[in-house]
Amino acid sequence: MTEAYVQVTTTTDSRQEAATLAKSAVRERLAACAQLVGPIASTYWWEGEIESAEEWMVVFKTTADQFEELAGLITENHSYDTPEIIATPVVAGSADYLGWLSEQTTTAEDESD
Fold first, then answer.
1. What is the 3-state secondary structure (H, E, C) of the chain?
2. pLDDT > 70 fraction of the chain, expressed in percent and rounded
3. Which of 23, 32, 35, 81 could be stapled to 104 by a disulfide with Cβ–Cβ 3.0 to 4.6 Å?
4. Chain centroid offset of residue 80 CA
5. What are the pLDDT digits (tens) for 68-106?
6. Which domains does the chain possess?
7. 39 upstream amide cis, omega within 30 of 0
8. What rounded mean pLDDT belongs to the chain?
9. 29 pLDDT exceeds 50?
10. For residue 73, what are the contacts with CB-CB under 8 A and spacing of at least 6?
11. What b/e sequence results for 60-97 when a residue is b if at least 16 CB atoms lie within 10 Å of its CB, and e otherwise?
């Protein structure tokens, strides 16, 4: 990733799972913030058929450096066989917000280096 900050999205089939993923990522400091959006209506191909489902989206605000670990947390804790994990680069943002985002995704371990 060339950008310093990213928004990572995933979708789940329940608000509870979305909230659990959001809280886990923030607790582990893999995201400074996670927002739940939903329910949303999704239409997609799955196993040769067009499917429709009600889902919840989670938008994680994080640094590009945290992406791989955040993707791992999502994959390990997600109920889908193939969860959506998409990182969108943040090309601009307020300096104060991006500074806060960096501070919140710094672990105590990082601070001792």
1. CCCCEEEEEEEECCHHHHHHHHHHHHHCCCCCEEEEEEEEEEEEEECCEEEEEEEEEEEEEEEHHHHHHHHHHHHHHCCCCCCCCEEEECCCCCHHHHHHHHHHCCCHHHHCC
2. 91
3. 32
4. 15
5. 999 999 999 999 999 999 999 999 999 999 999 999 998
6. 5-92 (3.30.70.120)
7. yes
8. 93
9. yes
10. 21, 24, 25, 28, 30
11. bbbbbbbbeebbebbeeebeeeeebbebeebeeeeeee
**Residue labelled with tokens 């501070």:** 103
Residue 68 and residue 5: Cα distance in Å, rounded? Answer: 13
pTM of the model: 0.90
Tokens representing 65?
């450096």
Tokens for 64, please give them: 């590009």
Residue 9 CA neighbour count, 13 Å, CB half: 10
pLDDT at 110: 52
For residues 103 and 14, give the distance between their C-alpha atoms in angstroms, rounded to a whole number. 30
- The pLDDT, as a whole number, for residue 113 is 46
